[in-house]
């Protein structure tokens, strides 16, 4: 008689674009199900960056603690590899306590790295990055995007011409390896995640409404003192520049440019909203390319209840 395969412990991905209600749904679950939240957000890892990242406030975090929030200073860097190592350790700890890991966020690359493993991409190289930044300062990032399209059309097709961080990374990978990033991803060896997964994707039935939410939220950030927050960051961390990993988070680069006198507050508002909408567009593109997602309309007034029902049924199966 063959032995039965061991039953995998459950884990939940709660994914969605910015302003889709992920945090609210996750916090609502804390009082209803035995879950612990792991943040999957490349901006929330940074200390002292609260308003511009829409970080949950102290009262929310007291009610629903989030792992992987406020773990490094804005002058440091954090990668998908770092996230995978940290998340796997936390998931094991949470499971050992008899609870269920609930991974919540919008950094889709982190979700992909966790589920599928890493592709063996080279570590960041400061010299190559400095050279690429110098070239981009001369010809502009849209022209750098065109160069990327010649060597790696697959990666270029999923990036906006002003997505400086990802364009730079793709060009850096090519310089360091001589291979396109998309080709390296295709070669990656899948590492099976030892959990039974439920993947919930919060997507808008009407993208215009999501865009309105984004505009309202960015305007609220400005009212709450986002510009002052960036001033304080510069004062506390003098080595920060627009090219720092943390300052590439949506809104922060634009705020730095505003403080440098490049444009007024009204244009900061417009640029910040535009950049956030572009981020949401990329997040939705990632979600469309992922398999086995349970899609829920993030605009549904009963969203929290829908999320709870999906997870509750999943746990009972």
Spatial separation of the terminal alpha carbons? 25 Å
Number of strands: 6
Q: How is the biggest beta sheet arranged? A: 6 strands, parallel
Radius of gyration: 20 Å
**Helix coverage percent of residues?**
40-55%
Structural class: alpha/beta
- Low-pLDDT sequence parts: none
* N-to-C series of helices and strands: EHEHEHEHHHHHHEHHHHEH
Write down the overall geometry. Answer: globular
Q: Please state how the strands of the largest beta sheet are arranged side by side.
A: 3-2-4-1-5-6
Q: What is the averaged pLDDT score?
A: 93
Separate helix tally: 14
Beta-sheet strand percentage? Answer: 5-15%
Structural account:
This protein has 317 residues and is α/β, with parallel strands linked by helices. Helices cover 52% and strands 10% of the residues. Strands 3-2-4-1-5-6 form a six-stranded parallel beta sheet, sandwiched between helices. Helix 2 links the parallel strand 2 (35-40) and strand 3 (66-67). The protein starts with 9 loop residues before the first strand and ends with a helix. 38% of the residues are buried. The model has no long low-confidence stretch (mean pLDDT 93).
Task: Offer a concise description of the structure.
With 317 residues, the chain is an alpha/beta fold. The protein contains 14 helices and 6 strands. It has helices at 22-30, 58-63, 80-96, 108-116, 126-139, 141-151, 153-157, 164-177, 181-187, 207-223, 226-236, 252-259, 265-288, 303-316, and strands at residues 10-15, 35-40, 66-67, 100-105, 196-203, 293-297.
